[in-house]
Design brief:
Length: 416
């Protein structure tokens, strides 16, 4: 008689006898289960173990009772070890790393969602009747893992206006996330040069937000990209000149911020990018004589980091205004001998001249009456500056009234 495996249908003994026949055969089973229990019954055992079946052939007319024993084994069921899942990657959903089975139980971590390393232990539920394929019955531990998803970063760096530094700002976009998740990252951004223009930007220290490091990792933590440093507007301050003629030359004042690496061109006609260095001059436009001059100027940035500045384009042209000096006239009247008229002569004195200049003026003098007398009234009219002085001087008044005129008596020589 052959044995069988636990859980299979028991094998039925097949008796053969050339003397007693097989019609009156009884069977008794005895043995020990793998669990250590003794077994004795006329019913075939079911538990795995070592057994003996005793077949008794009944006595016949010609033959005595015959007993035959046969040893057999009910083997343990061979249990295939759990399958370990390979190459798992985080999906945002629960994943099974160790397969479940009906003949063993799992403890530890057999199913997980987050990336990481895990251990599960498989324990046979009935070691008396089951054993691993290698013949052992002890619990087996298995290591398995869920890998992090790799994210590919790209950087968007903002353009900026020149500020003299290499500081930059930007943002990181991440490709490759799963389960509609939106991981975030930060980084350090630096322009390779502080100068205005399109510049390379070094993006370093790209770091995932803390809440995303469990399940994600970056393909790189540094990048290179480009962004533009735009030219800054120069701060230009223009101060007009307004004053009174003093015999000296004056001009407008132009200051800039920054004050270094700039040139200021001046002209009396509009200056643009195309003519500032041919029409204009770095020598300031000045004015000496009284009057008004419009001054155009163009500020050229030599560093390349600032926008040039045109006064006409910014409606900020300069003006030199020099006002005339006001002279105060006084008069001296000459005495005269009576001549029967009111005609008078004299001279004009002017006060207020500058720069050691000595302007002159003429006038019309008239006595109020023709009679001889002292402290006579004199009218001075049409006080007029000499033509060479009218450019820079003007009179406070053109008429005077005097009370110091003298007409003396005329001496008559008798005729004999």
């Amino acid at each position: 008689m052959q044995g069988w495996t636990y859980g299979q249908t028991a094998k039925i003994p097949v008796p053969t006898s050339s003397t007693n026949g097989i019609n009156n055969v009884t069977y008794v089973y005895a043995g020990t289960t793998n669990a250590g229990a003794s077994y004795s019954s006329n019913i075939a055992p079911t538990e795995a173990g070592n057994y003996t079946v005793t077949a008794t052939f009944a006595q016949t007319t010609n033959y005595n009772e015959v007993t035959v024993e046969y040893d057999f084994v009910i083997s343990k069921v061979k249990v295939t070890e759990p399958t370990i899942a390979k190459d798992l990657k985080y999906t945002g959903k629960a994943q099974t790393g160790i397969t479940a089975g009906s003949s063993y139980s799992l403890s530890g971590t057999a199913t997980a969602t987050n990336a990481g390393n895990y251990t599960a232990t498989a324990t046979l539920g009935n070691t008396a009747n089951y054993e691993w394929a290698d013949g052992t019955t002890s619990a087996k531990s298995y290591n398995w893992s869920i890998g992090k998803v790799k994210l590919t970063p790209t950087a968007i760096v903002e353009n900026k206006v020149y500020d003299g530094t290499t500081n930059a700002t930007g943002s990181i976009q991440l490709a490759g996330a799963v389960n509609n998740e939106k991981p975030t990252a930060i980084a350090t951004y630096k322009f390779a040069s502080a100068k205005a223009g399109e510049q390379k930007v070094n993006v370093t220290d790209i770091t995932l937000g803390n809440s995303w490091t469990t399940n994600y990792e970056l393909t790189t933590n540094k990048l290179e990209t480009t962004a533009t440093i735009e030219k800054q507007q120069l701060v230009v301050t223009k101060t007009n000149y307004t004053g009174i003629y003093d015999g000296k030359s004056h001009g407008i004042t132009v200051t800039t911020e920054p004050s270094e690496n700039v040139e200021v061109y001046y002209a009396t006609t509009a200056l643009t990018e195309s003519n500032y260095n041919t029409t204009g001059s770095t020598t300031p436009v000045t004015r000496k004589n009284a009057g008004t001059t419009t001054v155009y100027y163009y500020v050229k940035d030599l560093s390349g980091n600032y926008e040039d500045y045109s006064s006409s384009e910014n409606t900020n042209n300069g003006t030199i205004t020099i006002n005339k000096v006001i002279l105060t006239p006084s008069a001296t009247v000459n005495s005269k001998e009576y001549d029967g008229t009111t005609n008078a002569t004299g001279s004009i004195q002017l006060t207020g001249a500058v720069n050691n200049e000595a302007p002159t003026a003429t006038a019309t003098f008239k006595f109020d009456s023709k009679q001889v007398g002292t402290a006579k009234g004199v009218t001075v009219t049409n006080i007029t500056l000499g033509s060479t002085w009218t450019t820079n001087y003007t009179l406070s008044n053109t008429e005077l009234a005097l009370e110091n005129g003298v007409i003396t008596a005329k001496t008559v020589t008798p005729v004999a």
